[in-house]
Design goal:
Layout: H1 2-13, H2 15-36, H3 43-53, H4 55-84, E1 90-98, H5 104-116, H6 122-141, H7 149-153, E2 157-167, E3 170-181, E4 192-199, E5 202-205
Parallel strand pairs: 3-5
Antiparallel strand pairs: 1-2, 1-4, 2-3, 4-5
Helix pairs in contact: 1-4, 2-4, 2-5
Length: 211
């Protein structure tokens, strides 16, 4: 389940990229429709002809929509399940600061596809899929967590923290851990939080935010 969560996190980190690709495809569909629309035939015939001509763009939009939608649903269900768990580990925040800087890796991974690939060309789509598959494999294996727009929308923020946890009945401090939290952890120094160990040195705060 951890690997599935990493994949969903990776997919939703690139929502702006997916949205940009959808906009490009819709733009291409509109251009094709304006160029190929035939006044001498019926509306239904025009729709059928244009649907066949834009089949690739329509399928791409549908697949991207499903990919992002189910990743968002999966993340929400996963977090709810973890919050309902009765045996949540606890740790004490020793030091915390906002981790609000976009990494150069994220910017490169987002910008490069937009300038290097033509999403209306089948060959470029194939090259993009190879590029993105390699990037996904490397990021998931190396636990690279990017700024996640979906979690930001849900109110989560990322913090770099020193956290004291109990390991085999002994207290141990993990320095410079990344914690994803609904709470402002900079105001919770020396306070205890419940968490899920997303990966070594990466945690998600499971405390429910009070209204």
């Amino acid at each position: 389940m951890g690997s599935k969560f990493k994949w969903d996190m990776f997919v939703t980190s690139f929502i702006p990229l997916w949205f940009s690709i959808i906009v490009i495809n819709i733009w291409n569909i509109i251009e094709n429709c304006s160029n190929d629309w035939k006044r001498e035939i019926s509306l239904w015939d025009n729709i059928c002809i244009l649907s066949k001509a834009n089949y690739f763009f329509l399928v791409s939009i549908f697949i991207i929509f499903l990919l992002v939608f189910f990743s968002m649903i999966s993340i929400s269900i996963f977090l709810k399940d973890k919050k309902r768990s009765e045996n949540k580990p606890t740790g004490t925040i020793i030091k915390a600061r906002r981790a609000n800087k976009l990494s150069s890796e994220f910017l490169l991974a987002y910008i490069l596809p937009m300038i290097a690939f033509d999403f209306s060309d089948l060959q470029d789509i194939a090259l993009f899929l190879i590029y993105f598959s390699v990037l996904a494999t490397l990021c998931i294996r190396n636990n690279n967590v990017y700024t996640n727009i979906y979690l930001e929308f849900k109110g989560y923020r990322m913090y770099t923290c020193d956290i004291e946890c109990s390991v085999l009945d002994k207290n141990h401090i993990y320095f410079d851990s990344l914690i994803i939290s609904l709470y402002d952890l900079t105001t919770m120094i020396d306070k205890e939080i419940q968490y899920w160990d997303f990966e070594n040195y990466i945690y998600i705060n499971l405390n429910e935010k009070e209204e």
